[in-house]
C-alpha cells in the first residue's frame, strides 16, 4: 500500500519528468514546485531569482540549508515509459526531477513537524546546475548567510537503489573547461613549405597534454585531462589557416588544479614558439571539488542508519557539481542516493527507480530535524 504522500510525490515526479526544462529556463518547473508548496502552506522566500526558488520551514536559530537541483539536459530520451519526456530533445537524464521531488517531499514532511523543529530549514530548489552557474545565483541573494550547515543530494546509478552514500573530504572533481584557437598559415596541400600547418600543432598539443597527468601528477593524486573537440580544415587539398580544440580538466584539490592549469599554459607557450603560430587559450574555471566536512558526512551516514536505510562510504567521482560553491560558505555534506542503474547519468536511457522517492524524502527530513537538534545541543 502506498501512502497518499508517496503517491502524490510519484505523480509530481512523473510530471517533472514529462516536462523537462533546460538550465535557466525552468519556468514551469518552478511554478509547479511553488504551487505544491503553496498547497501545503509552506513559505516561499521572495528572492530575485529568474528560475528556482527557496522554501522555508521552522523559525529562529540554528538555521540549516538543504539543496536539490531542478534543471534537465539537451538529450533525446530513449526510455519507453508512460511518463517519457514530451519535450523534444530535452530530458531529465541526471535525475534532477528526482532531487526536486525528494526535496518537495522533505519540505512537506518537515512542515508536518514544524512545531517541534528546533530552528529553521531552508530548502533550495536550484536552477542551472548543469551549466555550473545556478548555485552562485542563489548565494548572491544572501539566502545562506548565517547558515550553520548545508546538505545536498545527487542520485547515483552505480549504487544499489535507495542506499545512502557519503564520504568525508573530496567527493566530486573541480571542473575546468578550456578552448584553444590556433592561428597558423594556410597554403596549398602540395606546397606545405609555403604555409604553417595548424594540424601539426594540434597533434603536438594532444600528445603533450597527455603527459601532464602521467609525468607531472603524483601517483597519490587523481586528475583527468580530456580533449573533446578538434576542428580544422575544409577539404583534402588545402592546408588550413586555423584549428580549434576544446577540453576539460578534472581535479580533486586546489594545488593539483592550479598545477595543471600552469602546465597547460606553459606547454602552449612552448608550442607557440616552436611552431611560430599564435595560440589563444580561453580558460573557464568551473565549480571546485565538492569537499565534505567530516562531522556532517558521518552525521549523514548515522542518520541513514537510524532511519533503517542501507548506507555506505562511497568513492570520489570525477563529475562536477556546483554544490561546492555552497560549501565554500558553509560546511556541510553532499550525499549520494543509489538510483539503481543500469545506465549512467547523462545517458539517453538513464532512469530513476521511483521506489527511492519517498524514502529519500523521509531520510532528508530526518536529517534536517536531527541536524537542528545537534546544533541546538551544541549551543547549550
Ligand atoms: Zn548532470
Ligand atoms: Zn546532476
UniProtKB/TrEMBL annotation:
**Gene3D superfamilies assigned to the protein according to its UniProt record, in alphabetical order:** 3.30.70.360, Zn peptidases
Query: Which InterPro entries does the record cross-reference, listed alphabetically?
Result: Amidohydrolase, Bact_exopeptidase_dim_dom, Peptidase_M20, Peptidase_M20_dimer
Give GO terms: molecular function aspect only. Answer: metal ion binding; N-acetyldiaminopimelate deacetylase activity
Q: What is this protein called?
A: Peptidase M20 dimerisation domain-containing protein
Under NCBIfam families, the record lists:
amidohydrolases
Q: What are the GO BP annotations of this UniProt entry?
A: diaminopimelate biosynthetic process
PANTHER family xrefs = METALLOPEPTIDASE, PUTATIVE (AFU_ORTHOLOGUE AFUA_6G09600)-RELATED, PEPTIDASE M20 FAMILY MEMBER
Q: Which cofactor does it need?
A: Mn(2+)
Q: What top-level branch of life does the organism fall under?
A: Bacteria
Keyword Repeat annotated: no
Pinpoint the Peptidase M20 dimerisation domain residues: 174-269
Q: How is the cofactor bound?
A: The Mn(2+) ion enhances activity.
Keyword tags: Hydrolase, Manganese, Metal-binding
Question: Which residues are recorded as binding Mn(2+)?
Answer: 94, 96, 130, 154, 346
Q: Does the keyword Metal-binding apply?
A: yes
Amino acid at each position: 500500500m502506498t501512502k497518499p504522500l508517496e503517491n502524490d510525490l510519484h505523480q509530481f515526479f512523473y510530471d517533472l519528468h514529462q516536462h523537462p526544462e533546460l538550465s535557466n529556463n525552468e519556468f514551469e518547473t518552478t511554478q509547479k514546485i511553488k504551487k505544491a508548496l503553496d498547497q501545503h502552506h509552506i513559505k516561499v522566500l521572495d528572492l530575485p531569482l529568474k528560475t528556482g526558488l527557496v522554501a522555508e520551514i521552522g523559525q529562529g536559530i540554528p538555521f540549516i540549508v538543504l539543496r536539490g537541483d531542478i534543471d534537465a539536459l539537451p538529450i533525446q530520451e530513449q526510455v519507453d515509459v508512460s511518463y517519457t519526456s514530451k519535450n523534444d530533445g530535452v530530458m531529465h537524464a541526471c535525475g534532477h526531477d528526482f532531487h526536486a521531488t525528494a526535496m518537495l517531499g522533505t519540505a512537506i514532511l518537515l512542515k508536518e513537524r514544524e512545531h517541534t523543529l528546533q530552528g529553521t530549514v531552508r530548502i533550495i530548489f536550484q536552477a542551472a546546475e548543469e551549466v555550473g552557474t545556478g548555485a552562485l545565483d542563489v548565494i548572491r541573494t544572501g539566502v545562506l548567510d548565517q547558515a550553520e550547515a548545508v546538505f545536498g543530494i545527487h542520485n547515483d546509478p552505480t549504487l544499489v537503489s535507495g542506499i545512502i552514500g557519503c564520504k568525508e573530504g573530496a567527493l566530486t572533481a573541480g571542473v575546468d573547461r578550456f578552448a584553444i584557437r590556433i592561428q597558423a598559415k594556410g597554403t596549398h596541400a602540395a606546397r606545405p613549405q609555403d604555409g604553417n600547418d595548424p594540424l601539426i600543432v594540434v597533434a603536438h598539443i594532444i600528445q603533450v597534454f597527455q603527459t601532464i597527468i602521467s609525468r607531472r601528477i603524483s601517483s597519490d593524486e587523481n586528475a583527468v585531462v580530456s580533449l573533446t573537440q578538434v576542428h580544422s580544415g575544409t577539404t583534402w587539398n588545402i592546408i588550413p589557416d586555423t584549428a580549434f580544440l576544446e577540453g576539460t580538466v578534472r581535479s580533486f584539490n586546489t594545488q593539483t588544479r592550479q598545477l595543471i592549469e600552469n602546465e597547460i599554459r606553459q606547454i602552449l607557450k612552448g608550442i607557440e614558439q616552436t611552431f611560430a603560430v599564435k595560440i589563444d587559450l580561453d580558460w573557464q574555471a568551473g565549480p571546485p571539488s565538492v569537499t565534505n566536512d567530516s562531522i556532517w558526512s558521518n552525521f549523514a551516514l548515522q542518520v541513514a542508519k537510524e532511519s533503517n536505510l542501507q548506507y555506505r562510504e562511497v568513492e570520489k567521482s570525477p563529475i562536477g557539481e556546483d554544490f561546492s560553491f555552497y560549501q565554500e560558505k558553509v560546511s556541510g555534506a553532499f550525499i549520494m542516493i543509489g538510483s539503481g542503474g543500469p545506465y549512467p547519468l547523462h545517458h539517453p536511457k538513464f532512469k530513476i527507480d521511483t521506489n527511492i522517492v519517498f524514502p529519500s524524502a523521509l531520510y532528508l527530513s530526518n536529517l534536517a530535524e536531527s541536524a537542528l537538534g545537534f546544533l541546538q545541543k551544541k549551543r547549550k
